[in-house]
Design a protein that fits this description.
The complex is a heterodimer. Chain A is mainly α. Chain A is built from 13 helices and no strands. The chains are: A mainly alpha, B mainly alpha.
């Protein structure tokens, strides 16, 4: 009775109420951005969504058109980037989890990989510009795909290592006890046990690169026309959005919003599928 | 027993190679398996080393590319403000200033908000709501930065221009230091807007790492504090935060690394003006925005080289920040593990 009316007690209670209110407020603040951004995207992008967006080329200012060539360019470069980056990432992750789990090399690679994971993507663009574009003398789709692959690698390395470490050692011992060589044990037993997690990693990597703009700006550049020639500049959805959004033409800006909606829906779908896969792994 | 064991190995091996299991030479097959083992091991090792090679390649190519600019301008490149492609005079201090200031604004907002959200998720939120809210915050991290850019340019900047910025200008107009920081006219785009958008972008990183380290606090410690009659705030402030300090700082540094290197969202809203203005509301530029805006239009080796030198500075700064972040988080993991 006495304690509850003391000024100290009242002060502590007041402070507690204020901070709890702040915590609720902060959460509402954080979540509201997701709602606001998605709402604006749907509002601005949905009205421009039509069949023409997927069947026509990017238009010159003032006429109607679609986003077929950047969508195709993005898809091709993403596929190539995944084809290059995934095997490399899985092999590196395999070494770190299976062969050299306590190696010095593994410790260093893990540290460097974690830094590459958050390194500015524009620097990756400069790197590929220096080693590919400057050497070849022109911008190209290959350079764009390779710069995306450089971003895929650390994501896949990280998830592969994490997932393989979670595979119980009893599985490995069982495989070894029937005389399976180590490389076969890894490929036939460990990979199979960690498959869902590794696929999740690849999906997350695809989600990451499908919105990447900075590394493409001066590797793949852009292309107004239909071209899947990877030795020439290739259009990509993010770069077209960048160019169109900053243009003064109303119909280009409209297409930029539609493109933004397509990318966001694709990325959100990918990350939700990845999450469901990861959750299934946990429950099974 | 031994022979069946061996047969199974050989069968598995042959399954992949497509040779019929009827005719085989056991010694040969075992020899091949051994070879396969060695090859696979070296292949994985080479892939792991490739990760190091990528980092090395980035560093070497950036240094190589920036040599002409660094030779021409020397150390003065770091503190000169002039950026003139026509006379080919370049200095990096304006973009460096922009990068540092936008990131600072971002952290100023995102750190307290992120910590409060993490506190909400670990202490206050009902169990059934924790996963959905956590996922929603992480989806915020998944939205590509170009989306933040286009949204910032068309929606957020005009909104700020009409509401928050005039309010700040009139609010701080009479106060000595703040009146310079928030001197007018409200452009909408500028350093302040870029900082706010960065804050929204790094918020999920800080939140999810803080939540993870908060969850690692042994319940016994918290229960003991609650048992003594501590309030939720006191538990968070005097038990959870001191226990997780290293991890929280690691998470903050990770968010800072992201903010420093963020390109597209900033490029849209910063205004790309190569000058240092006393007012936060004025247009400015950052390292990444300068590169994104000017690289494809850069004519002349010196101009290109100056931009690559900017990239090198950015990489060095983010590398140091991210390395500190990882070392702190590693130290935390070692402690939790041991």
């Amino acid at each position: 009775m006495n304690a509850s009316s003391s000024p100290l007690y009242a002060k502590r209670r007041r402070r507690n109420v204020i901070t709890i209110a702040l915590a609720y407020g902060a959460t509402g603040f954080g979540l509201s951005w997701l709602v606001v951004i998605l709402a604006v995207l749907l509002w601005e992008g949905f009205s421009g969504l039509s069949l023409a967006v997927f069947t026509e080329m990017t238009p010159p200012p003032g006429s109607a058109g679609g986003l077929l060539n950047p969508i195709a360019g993005s898809l091709v470069m993403t596929v190539i980037a995944v084809l290059i980056g995934t095997p490399l990432g899985i092999l590196a992750g395999t070494y770190m989890a299976e062969y050299g789990r306590y190696d010095r090399l593994t410790t260093i690679v893990r540290f460097i990989n974690d830094i590459l994971l958050s390194a500015p993507s524009i620097v990756v663009g400069l790197f590929i510009y220096e080693v590919m574009v400057a050497q070849m003398g022109h911008f190209s789709g290959w350079a764009g795909a390779v710069s995306l692959a450089v971003i895929v690698v650390p994501v896949v390395v990280r998830t592969t290592e994490d997932m393989l470490v979670l595979v119980p050692d009893t599985l490995r011992e069982a495989a070894a006890s029937i005389g399976l060589p180590r490389s076969l044990m890894i490929r036939r037993v460990a990979y199979r046990a960690a498959r869902a997690g590794m696929i999740t990693g690849v999906l997350l990597a695809v989600a990451r690169i499908s919105g990447e703009t900075a590394p493409l700006l001066f590797t793949a550049l852009n292309n107004q026309f239909w071209s899947l020639n990877l030795n020439a500049p290739v259009a990509s959805l993010p770069v077209v959005i960048f160019q169109f959004a900053l243009s003064p033409y109303r119909d280009w800006q409209k297409l930029a919003w539609t493109g933004a909606l397509i990318i966001t829906l694709a990325v959100l779908a990918l990350s939700i599928i990845a999450r469901i896969l990861a959750a299934q792994r946990k429950t099974s | 027993m031994l022979s069946t064991g061996r047969r199974s190995v050989v069968d598995v091996a042959l399954q992949g190679s497509g040779i019929s299991a009827v005719h085989f030479d056991r010694a040969k097959v075992l020899q091949r398996l051994r070879m396969g083992d060695v090859v696979f091991r070296h292949l994985t090792r080479a892939a792991a080393i490739t990760v190091l090679v990528i980092l090395g390649g980035i560093i070497v190519s950036l240094i190589w590319g920036s040599l002409p600019a660094l030779r021409t301008f020397g150390v003065s490149f770091l503190y000169e403000e002039v950026w003139n492609p026509v006379t080919e005079k370049f200095g990096a201090i304006a973009p460096i200033y922009g990068t540092v200031v936008t990131s600072f604004i971002a952290m100023l907002i995102a750190v307290p908000v992120g910590l409060f959200i993490a506190m909400f998720l670990t202490e206050l939120c009902p169990m059934w709501l924790r996963r959905p809210i956590g996922i929603a915050i992480e989806l915020l991290a998944g939205i590509p930065s170009i989306i933040y850019g286009i949204w910032g340019l068309f929606v957020f900047a005009p909104f700020l221009q009409q509401t928050l910025q005039p309010f700040l200008i009139s609010l701080f107009g009479q106060i000595p230091v703040l009146s310079t920081l928030f001197a007018g006219p409200p452009y909408g785009i500028g350093v302040f807007t870029a900082g706010l958008i960065l804050a929204i972008m790094v918020l999920p990183f800080i939140t999810s790492i803080s939540r993870d380290v908060f969850e690692a606090v042994p319940p016994v410690l918290k229960e003991a504090a609650y048992g003594l009659g501590c309030t939720t705030w006191e538990v968070a402030r005097y038990v959870v935060l001191p226990y997780t300090r290293v991890g929280v700082i690691g998470g903050i540094m990770l968010g800072l690394g992201r903010a420093l290197g963020e390109t597209m969202a900033v490029t849209f809203v910063i205004g790309n003006a190569h000058r240092i203005s006393g007012s936060l509301l004025a247009p400015g530029t950052t390292i990444s925005a300068t590169i994104a805006n000017e690289f494809t239009e850069a004519v002349g080796d010196l101009y290109t080289s100056a931009l690559i030198a900017l990239g090198l500075i950015l990489f060095v700064i983010t590398f140091i920040v991210l390395a500190i972040a990882r070392l702190l988080l590693l130290r935390l993991n070692a402690r939790v593990g041991g």
